[in-house]
Design goal:
- By secondary structure, this protein is of the alpha+beta class.
- The protein contains eight helices and 13 strands.
- The protein has a single domain, classed as Sulfite Oxidase, Chain A, domain 2 (Alpha-Beta Complex).
- It is globular.
- Bound molecules: ligand MTE.
- Ligand MTE binds next to loops.
Length: 307
């Protein structure tokens, strides 16, 4: 994950901030989106969305920045590769296989997921390990709801997530970047934490392909690479899985990957971050500012060792 130079757009190029808290706003937003020439927005409607807990009132990153400055290595390493190539991903039909140590394994179609789990808006900070950050209004539901629905067996300790591995969809320059599918993992208590969501939309609309359509993970106290996009499979397992970045560079990317300003990445420090929408540098907070909610998960652990 090498930092990539990106021009932060001046204010006049950025669509004014809006919050999307109810269905009416959602529909109005879609009308505005259709009129906006800059980016094609998806017109598909999501079921009703209500405001959820834990949202920040910090200034939000614009839709344009959040959808054009992306990491999605299946579509290439440059920040604008996902916006250019992710349209190749066919997200309908889509299903997520849930298997391993669960009572009721099987594949869930996206329609069933959207019908079953009430959607909330969660405005979270996203801190990338590359030391940039955004504030994004996600739409999703707690991963804990889905896990309760399939029934976690008592011997499960971790959750393994997998993306898609259809290399035909990937541009040539992306095919050998990592071992596909992209893989990530969470300890079961992290997966069940109420901050951890599966997101199906952002900015009041269905998830743009480049941000991980149709369903992705968002774990706001961890570096962004944990928040795996375009999930195909969720497996409950006993042993700690090895994630894609750990496999690729174990000294650089750990399993926990909690945002921690005191633990350097071997090639750069993590004490500050660049907020993309204003270009300014701010201090990085322990657990990305979610310490009150999550610090207890790591009581007694040396986080410089378990990075
Ligand atoms: N998920 C998949 N499948 N492939 C990826 O390359 N990149 C990760 C994460 N999820 C990635 C992924 C990284 S490094 C970050 S910082 C976030 O997605 C970025 O999410 P965003 O592009 O929506 O901001």
């Amino acid at each position: 994950m090498r930092p990539y130079r990106y021009r932060v757009p001046p204010a006049r190029e950025i669509t004014p901030q809006q919050t999307w808290l109810n269905r009416r706003a959602l529909i109005a937003a879609m009308g505005a989106a259709l009129a906006a020439p800059a980016l094609p927005r998806k017109a598909t409607a999501l079921p009703e969305v209500v405001p959820g807990p834990f949202s920040t009132d910090e200034a939000q990153t614009s839709f344009e920045v959040a959808t054009n400055y992306c990491n999605f290595f299946e579509f290439g390493p440059a920040k604008d590769d996902p916006a250019r190539h992710a349209h190749r991903l066919i997200t309908d039909p889509w299903s997520v296989t849930i298997d391993g140590l669960v009572e009721r394994p099987g594949a869930m179609a996206m329609e069933d997921i959207l019908a079953r789990f009430p959607l909330e808006e969660r405005i979270y900070r996203l801190r990338c390990v590359e030391a940039w950050s955004m504030v994004i209004p996600w739409i999703g539901f707690p991963l804990a709801d889905l896990l309760a629905n399939v029934g976690v067996r008592p011997d499960a300790r971790h959750v393994l997530f997998e993306g898609f591995d259809d290399t035909e969809l990937m541009p040539d320059h992306a095919r050998n970047l990592l071992e596909w599918p992209y893989r990530e993992g969470l300890r079961l208590d992290e997966a069940l934490h109420p901050l951890t969501i599966l997101a199906v939309g952002m900015y009041g609309q269905v998830m743009p392909n480049q941000n991980g359509a149709p369903i992705r993970l968002v774990v706001p106290w961890k570096y962004g690479f944990k928040s795996i996009k375009s999930i195909r499979r969720i497996s409950l397992v006993a042993e700690r899985p090895v994630s894609s970045w750990q496999e690729r560079a174990p000294r650089e990317y750990g399993y926990y990957a909690n945002v921690n300003p005191q633990v350097r990445h071997p090639r750069w420090h993590q004490a500050t971050e660049r907020r993309l929408h204003d270009g300014g540098r701010i201090r990085t907070e322990m657990f990305n500012g979610y310490g009150e909610e999550v610090a207890h998960l790591y009581d007694g652990m040396d986080l410089s060792e378990h990075y």
